[in-house]
Specification:
Blueprint lengths: L12 E2 L2 E2 L1 E6 L4 E6 L8 E7 L4 E8 L3 H12 L5 E5 L3 E7 L3 E4 L6 E10 L12 H25 L8 H7 L1 H10 L10 H10 L2 H12 L36 H18 L9 H27 L16 H6 L10 H19 L4 H23 L4 E4 L7 H9 L5 H8 L12 E4 L2
Antiparallel strand pairs: 1-2, 1-7, 3-6, 4-5, 6-10, 7-8, 8-10, 9-10, 11-12
Length: 440
């Protein structure tokens, strides 16, 4: 025998106190405002959201122990906070008791009547603080630059300029000058060659710190995430790191350009960690002080590049795949997300480079480098967590990059991403061998 609607009713209670409910009501539908206008016969009803679920009901407590149960229900109704209401028709609800009435009737002995009102108990969403890791990287970069300038000035103050050897300094700083040429293009007009760089340090040691101080005070960033950017053009370097760009344009912008530029500069940091031991004590001290300043300045520049990388918002999946000819006329617009593998590789290499640099730092500068390292690693970890992973994919046959991108992502415009990621010689022929592609 099938259960009837009466059998499906739940025994009513609030906070475990049982009672009977002969009738109940709750608003449904939409609340709103009716607009009526003069000289117009058609009103307009403006919907303003759903009605608040305010439960109003009549409750009976019947029996020889009605007074005892009545007092328990009163205590439950007057206890602050939410509680569970078992509604016969609607099930279990989290509510807060509102205005209620209690009545007794001499002719209805052994029964207490309540008119109850319950409001929905939605848990309050407590405000949560979100750490701005981008701002932390910027602040730690500025602190590192200040500490680096102070360390350079302190070191050069102890150097006897009369004992500096031009030939030894030029040979020892040749690698440092190469880094300046690649990473700080505006300085090329100041230092024409390695000899001029060494002469400048010998004649005016403070000029180098002044140059870096002025450079970063006017630093406007690489604009990797600007639509009109030609990002990363200062260094003239190249890298095999490519992001999962929606457009697949192949230009070094966005995450791809930022990761490639930062990776190239990280290699420069490691290349000048120490200078060759040529000349006397003063020559070596001056050369190492200059190398340390250039190394720290490259790190500061990397920090500013890294700070431009936002934590990505994941794109919505493509529900319906448009035809290739339609995508050619109207390409799919998807937000760019980083490739987690590239960001993690950059994070680990940069972490190692900063750690090596900190081993030769004095205690004060060590703290600045360590703080910088921690904030950069923290931000790059957050960026990587918002990115996509790479997976190994073997095409079933030799395909064009366009066909492979269309089959894999439903987006033919990502063909350039396939070519760049795997250094395919010709976009029309992707061989049937394992290649790296974004997971989505």
């Amino acid at each position: 025998m099938t259960a009837t609607w009466r059998d499906q009713l739940l025994p009513a209670s609030f906070r475990g106190i049982r009672f009977l409910i002969p009738q109940t009501s709750v608003p449904v539908g939409m609340k709103g405002q009716l607009h009526e206008f003069p000289q117009r016969d058609t009103p307009f009803f403006e919907q303003l959201g759903k009605q608040s679920q305010v439960h109003k009901m009549t409750a009976w407590i019947i029996g020889d122990d009605c007074f005892e149960r009545r007092d328990k229900l009163i205590e439950a109704l007057e206890t602050p906070g939410g509680g569970e209401l078992v509604h016969p028709w609607l099930g279990r609800l989290q509510v807060k008791a509102g205005e209620c009435d209690m009545s007794h009737d001499l002719t209805a002995g052994g029964m207490v009547v309540f008119d109850l009102t319950f409001y929905p108990d939605e848990p309050l969403k407590m405000p949560g603080a979100k750490v701005n890791t981008q701002a932390q990287v910027v602040n730690s970069s500025e602190s590192l630059l200040t500490s680096s300038l102070n360390r350079y000035k302190t070191a050069m103050a102890t150097v006897n300029k009369a004992r500096l050897g031009l030939l030894q300094m030029r040979n020892g700083l040749s690698g440092v000058f190469s880094v300046i040429q690649r990473q700080f293009a505006p300085f090329v007009s100041v230092f024409t060659d390695a000899t001029g760089f060494a002469q400048s340090l010998m004649n005016s040691p403070g000029s180098l710190s002044s140059l870096f101080s002025s450079y970063f005070s006017a630093f406007s960033g690489f604009n990797f995430f600007s639509s009109s950017s030609g990002g990363g053009s200062r260094s003239g370097g190249s890298s095999s790191s490519y992001g999962a760009s929606a457009g697949g344009s192949g230009s070094d912008t966005g995450y791809r350009g930022a990761v490639a530029e930062a990776a190239q500069q990280t290699e420069a940091v490691s290349s000048i960690n120490t200078v060759s031991a040529q000349g006397g004590v003063d020559t070596l001290a001056a050369s190492q002080a200059a190398a340390n300043l250039v190394q720290d300045s490259v790190l500061v520049q990397i920090g500013l590049i890294v700070s431009e990388m936002p934590v990505a918002t994941q794109p919505e999946p493509i529900e319906s795949v448009a035809a290739v000819d339609h995508q050619a006329l109207q390409p799919i617009a998807r937000p760019e997300v980083p490739v987690a593998d590239d960001v993690i590789e950059l994070r680990d290499n940069l972490n190692e480079a900063i750690f090596e640099a900190s081993l030769k730092a004095d205690p004060v500068h060590y703290l600045a480098l360590n703080s910088f390292r921690q904030t950069v690693v923290k931000h790059l970890t957050a960026v990587a967590e918002s990115g996509v992973r790479l997976v190994d994919v073997t095409p079933p046959e030799t395909l064009s990059a366009l066909v492979l991108a269309y089959r894999r992502f439903g987006d033919a415009t990502r063909a350039a991403e396939v070519v760049q990621r795997n250094r395919i010689r010709h976009p029309g022929f992707v061989p049937a061998v394992p290649i790296k592609l974004a997971q989505r």
